[in-house]
Amino acid sequence: MAADAERWRAPSSAGASSPDAPQAAPWLATSHNRQAPETNSPRALRRITGNSILDGKDRTVSPESYSSFQNEIYLQGLLTEQVPELTTDLQALEDTARQALSPSAYGYVAGGAGGGATVRANREALDRRRVVPRMLRDVGTRDLSRTVLGTRMPAPVALAPVGVLSIVHPDGELAVARAAAKAGLPMVLSTASSYTLEEVAEASGEGSSRWFQLYWPKDREVTVSMLQRAEAAGYHTLVITLDTWLLGWRPTDLDRAYLPFLQRTGIANYLSDPAFLAGLDKPVEEDPLAAVAHWADMFADPTKTWQDLAFIREHWSGPIVLKGVLHADDARRARDEGMDGIVVSNHGGRQVDGAVAALDALPEVVDAVGGELAVLFDSGVRTGADVVKALALGADSVLIGRTYAYGLASGGEEGVTHVLRCLLAELDLTVALSGHRSPDELGPDLLAG
Ligand SMILES: Cc1cc2nc3c(=O)[nH]c(=O)nc-3n(C[C@H](O)[C@H](O)[C@H](O)COP(=O)(O)O)c2cc1C
């Protein structure tokens, strides 16, 4: 854990959970288990499931019993002959998403840079590591919670910034924000969201943990305006993405000439920004192409250097995290520039084809700055077992990206909730079955390969 983790406290006005807040996470009932089955023995059911899950009401699943989701599924099958509407194999959920999405939207989400070498490498690096379980260690009671940069998480999992989610589902980021809030997990909202950051903040509700990701615009006034809006809307942690000053070469999208931003999808935060609008000669409705061109001009600035970070520090009062770090020297530089955290990430293989797998970069980065900076991780994570592997290699917390986007495509908000429940259940089970009670007990010796 980062040494300064306790330094940051989410502002209470943002409604973020305090470190001592209860860790219960209310889940929505999925449609297939809303009906109360006929039974004379609710106590017996409770003993099996650990929760009163079959009473037809919204229920609360405490993080201590994430794994009871599987009992719920089996019991549901026994009593009602119903099976889950979506697969519990989160790697297979991509197929469901593919069927639900247009080829362009599916290609945009699933595609990677170039020939996809880094997309494959991310998975290969996770698959190569194998867990070596330990036995007879009393894992009856477990606590997966962690505090990262002042954000108390019931499990060390957050939702990565994924832009343009309205191409995946009409409710887009609003649905994701609701599902994340119900799970008590932080959502990192992308600058490139389909809804404005204020709309997403409202959807996430009181008590949610709001992080904002910045694609750092060329225009300083627009940058400051967005940061001010984000703080005013209760976002308390800033994630600056460093690896996307230019879009990577993405043949899947290029072959379809498909870039949603050009259709004004995913630029809601710009089109609602007073500083951005001030730079237009005409209102957006009168000259939409000019608005898109203005966006393209300022989307990112490849001339930025480490010195420029001081400007952001001046305009953001909470923790700052740099996303896209893959080299130990860059991690040290982030520390020296006074940053609070980094995300070891290759953007899910979407930027540099042939880039190192993010998991292979993680150990060196942790060696360089672990304990001084919060080290978060993403790229390729699909399952609870993947989360365990990244934690074992020193990540303080793990972000999931495409995994929840596939849930969104397959079932909207309930699809995202399904993904989170499956992932957290498998995470809990893997921690337990490998002989551990908390993420703090996981270390590199857990892994072979
Ligand atoms: C469709 C899509 C859109 C994304 N948009 C953003 C974004 O707006 N900002 C950002 O920092 N990262 C973005 N990412 C990268 C994710 O934050 C994350 O690094 C990546 O999804 C991790 O890889 P994985 O999905 O294979 O786990 C995007 C990823 C995808 C798949």
From TrEMBL:
Coiled coil: none annotated. Residues 30-42 have a biased composition (Polar residues). Glyoxylate binds at Y215, R250, H347, R350. It comes from the Bacteria. The keyword NAD does not apply. Its cofactor is FMN. FMN binds at residues 108, 161-163, 190, 213, 241, 323, 345, 378-382, 401-402. Transmembrane segments: none annotated. It holds the Pfam family FMN_dh. Keywords: Flavoprotein, FMN, Isomerase, Oxidoreductase. GO terms for molecular function: FMN binding; isomerase activity; oxidoreductase activity, acting on CH-OH group of donors. InterPro entries: Aldolase_TIM, Alpha-hydoxy_acid_DH_FMN, FMN-dep_DH, FMN_HAD, FMN_hydac_DH_AS. Residues 1-63 are annotated as: Disordered. The active site is at H347 (proton acceptor). Residues 82-449 form the FMN hydroxy acid dehydrogenase domain. Residues 10-26 have a biased composition (Low complexity). Belongs to the FMN-dependent alpha-hydroxy acid dehydrogenase family. This is Isopentenyl diphosphate isomerase/L-lactate dehydrogenase-like FMN-dependent dehydrogenase. It comes from Halopolyspora algeriensis.
